[in-house]
Design brief:
851 residues; alpha/beta; five-stranded parallel sheet; 38 strands; disordered N terminus; disordered C terminus
Length: 851
Amino acid sequence: MSSSSAAQSHPRHVVVIGFGMVAHRTVMEILAREPKTRITVIAEEVGHAYDRVALSSYVGSWDRGMLELDTLPATVEVHNALATGIDREAKLVTCSDGREVAYDHLVLATGSAPFVPPVPGHDLDGVFVYRTLDDLDALRERIDSAKAAGRTPVGAVIGGGLLGLEAANALRLLGAETHVVEMAPRLMPIQVDAAGGAVLAQKVEALGVAVHTGRATSSIAENPAEPNTLTMTLGSDEGDEELAVDLVVFSAGIRPRDELAAAAELERGPRGGFGVDRHCLTSDPAISAVGEAAAVDGTCYGLVAPGYQTAQIVADRLTGRTARAFVDPDMSTKLKLLGIDVASFGDAHGVAEGARELHVNDPVAGEYKKLVLAADGKTLLGGILVGDAAQYSVLRSLVGEPLPGSPMALIAPTAGEAPAIGVGSLPRDAQICSCNAVSKGDICSAIADGSHSVGDIKTCTRAGASCGSCVGLIRQLLDAEGIEQSTAVCEHFAQSRAELFQIASSTGISDFSTFIERFGQGRGCEVCKPTLASIFATLNSADHVLDDGRAALQDSNDRFLANIQRNGSYSVVPRMPAGQVSAEQLIVCGEIAKDFDLYVKVTGAQRIDMFGARVDQLPEIWRRLVDAGMESGQAYGKSLRAVKSCVGTDWCRYGQQDSVKMAVDLELRYRGLRSPHKLKMGVSGCARECAEARGKDVGVIATENGWNLYVGGNGGATPRHAQLLAKDLDDVTLIRFIDRFLGFYVRTADRLQRTAAWMESIEGGLDHIREVVCEDSLGIAADLEEFVGRHVDGYADEWSRVLEDPEKLSRFVSFVNAPESPDPTIQFEKRDGRKVPLPAPSMPAVPVGAR
């Protein structure tokens, strides 16, 4: 094959076969260098190029436009057809619709296809692959069909690597009981080692996904006893296991699509792909190959970063730039799979001669960290991070460099201290963005030239424009250069949370896809999705938080309306306004705790918390509580948690006002009010402060003449005493002022900002808030009161509404890892007379074998 590095003359017509992410990047890179280049794209998949890496984010929104990449100029022709042949002598591409497209230079960007092993039954109805938007639409249709038949859908993913866990997440979001089957003895065997795989499996199982490692699928067969269902047979050294499922998803790897090579007599790589040199030229100098279809010196790469590198190389060469050679890519990966951070970089498995390994394994916190060091014990070679990958970007950039301090301090800093290194420790040539090969020096130069925001740096250098994992480091570099940062919620919205609230309030839009299309960019992330979900819930209290695809936007606790515990079980907290509970309700709580074997604790907020419920048990527990006249205490939400109260004038000889009645009135008024952070309140009947009201976001203390209102208190790592806002208020005025205070806070605070921090951040602080709340200095008091009034009128118990809706109920299924009813991964022990959770068991030690 050709290996010339000389710049070629600019071809008049470039034809690109394929329209995936790398094909799209190739076109954009060519046009960026030579805007007048004539380009034709032959695209088998109908529609615009989209971000295949973010495929699972399509679930919930079902909006293809959210994943679409930048629109191509009108000068680029996109022809929807399958390329079926190449006539190299005539320089023609034949298409499935009979059209022949002439080219001066041809770029093969055909990508890859899912590998489906020849398992008996792999071609049955109900067996899918996970690769395209059409695949996800087909999965959704199959799962909806199972639900319509009255079954809880069960899905199994064959393959526990990166793509397999992404597919499992999609099934989970679709409401299916999900199993992952992996031949290797651990999940993600390429990226993590045995110890890291054990922690990863523990965290995946805690989310309700059953993990079957060390097992191969030997057959898939139709289940004659149940129409439209399948039986999988899983084999292992311990014997066969059968698994009844509604659908099977193959996600066991990919293979380059190089079918065009044979008839065109183009060289192929030893494991497939179009054979190319390091300038991405095939054996025909008029044909290049890029992305997953290109076997560079015999090797195909399945990550997007090396694909983008091939796109840049081809664009340089075709537009007369000095051709550069392909550089072996950094295969480091950092992903958030099923909400779990996983990172692997450098020599992660310590294969270098003399390599030494440093491990930190915390099964209680669900974190595993490993550094691989050279024989000198100082030079970083690689590492693995599971559960907490905050230091990934910095550590990856230090691979091959002497560490600036103790290796242990890098991954296990002393409690309360920051990690030992930051972006300032990195050399200028350290790579910050591996997707687009951008160094610290490149970003610092861009900052010096006037790029003073993450968005500016993305535009200037492309750093952070692909997977986004380096955005945190970019922000650190901006901070280090003294650049004041934006208040934007995230990279997808330039607005602050308060601005997003005002937009949502003014437009009435409560659909995330519509909202981000009009006011943001991209497809959203784990920051902006729950932020907007909270805003929508605040403005539309009559709607349920799981309505209209909003479940996928919620934080994990809100998705199941309960607090997840460290072993994957849940705790249930019914509302007990001011700590009041009837004898009948107390008996019901006791019976539930006994019947479901739950651990019971009276909380500091004067409520009962029942721990240890499986997700499938939640609806039945709620039903019994609702039947007893109780409702959700919303211990899981960023909302009002509880209003603590003393006994007041009812029983106490020091009480000056009826604190119990006031606490009940406040809790029933503000229950369910979604806010930037959790809210706590307290009402004390006298200055002796038995309800600890001054440690709450809203504290009310009785006086001889009425009530004193305190705001901005909290406990936690940085305790704050609430400050006096107004004194000697009657009942009506007290509630009116609290309405205004909460309305002002909910509308203007940043995400996850407690009332104390919010008050400090507002210019004028407490004095300004007092003017707004008590004196109506901004003229918005009536609006704030109306806002809270709408919430009160629209409130409905979230548990009850789930029980009334079969679609919502279908989400609450126990994902078992064995035929027995109790999930064996959820375990407990007795300690000092208390029932306490055990972490999910580690995987058994199985000899490592080849896949």
